[in-house]
Amino acid sequence: MFLYYTVILIIVIFTIVFGTLSVISSLFDKTGKIQHLISTYWGKFILKFTGIKVEVKGLENLNSLGTFVLMPNHQSLYDIPILLSSIPFQFSFLAKESLFRIPILGWHLSTARHIRIDRSNTRDGVRSLLEGVKKIKEGISLLIFPEGTRSIDNRIGSFKIGGFVMAIKAGIPIVPITINGTGKIIKKGEKRFSPARVTFIIDSPIETKNYTLEDKNALAEKVRQRILDNWNPDLNS
Q1: d(CA 220, CA 115)
Q2: Domain containing 128 — which CATH number?
Q3: What is the C-alpha to C-alpha distance for residues 8 and 4, in angstroms, rounded to an integer?
């Protein structure tokens, strides 16, 4: 229990420090590039100071120039610092509205041009989807957790369809990402910290240009299967 609260304190301190720097930088940079760079160091510092090591595989699948919709599975609060420290270019999150109400973190999300989505409000949800398509067409990659929330049992949950609608409308490839092991670090609903081996696997992009909105469920299943193909039960049980 003591270790858990120590880790939370470390995360809070780094969030305040780097979040404040991000807000200050937004006064000089309206592109979000500096804020994103700051957030990558936020992720690296959290991993280093809490003893989490990550093995990244498939980075070459992101070497080609272009814009992507990045779709990882979601098990833990640690997924976000791992994603920020492992993906070598600027991207925006499609994040739930409640995160924008958190002091410092919410300010950073706003100034770094991330997109809020309120799933309880259909009108706001549609507006978020349209904003996401606009950003993608402007050349900014978008990261979406297709499960919508963190898994509570270290399994891959069902996928929400909104992100696939965005990708099809924008005609942008989807990159499936499998994160193994973070669910064992801090389990949802538990106050326990357990350092674990984490692997971060970037699969090859799936083109969406030949898909229509009628194919969105088939596309979602294809992406989910790619993530499952890289899923390691030994690291997640």
Answers
A1: 21
A2: 3.40.1130.10
A3: 6
Q: In this structure, are residues 209 and 20 in contact, taking their beta carbons and an 8 Å threshold?
A: no
Q: Which residues pair with 117 in a beta bridge?
A: 96
Note whether 136 and 142 are within 8 A (CB).
Answer: yes
pLDDT in tens, 102-157: 776 677 677 767 777 766 655 656 677 777 777 777 778 889 999 988 887 778 98
Count of domains observed in the chain: 1
Q: Helices then strands (H, E): number in the chain?
A: 8, 7
Domain containing residue 166: 2-236
Which phi and psi angles does 57 have, rounded to 5°?
A: -125, 145
Please state, as a whole number, how many other Cβ atoms lie within 10 Å of the Cβ of residue 219: 23
Sheet containing strand 91-96, edge to edge, reads: 54-57, 198-202, 174-180, 69-72, 141-143, 91-96, 115-117
* Residues listed for the chain: 237
Task: Look at phi and psi of residue 107 and say left if phi exceeds 0, alpha if psi is from -120 to 50, else beta.
Answer: alpha
pLDDT one-digit tens code per residue, 47-62: 999 999 999 999 999 8
pTM of the predicted protein model: 0.90
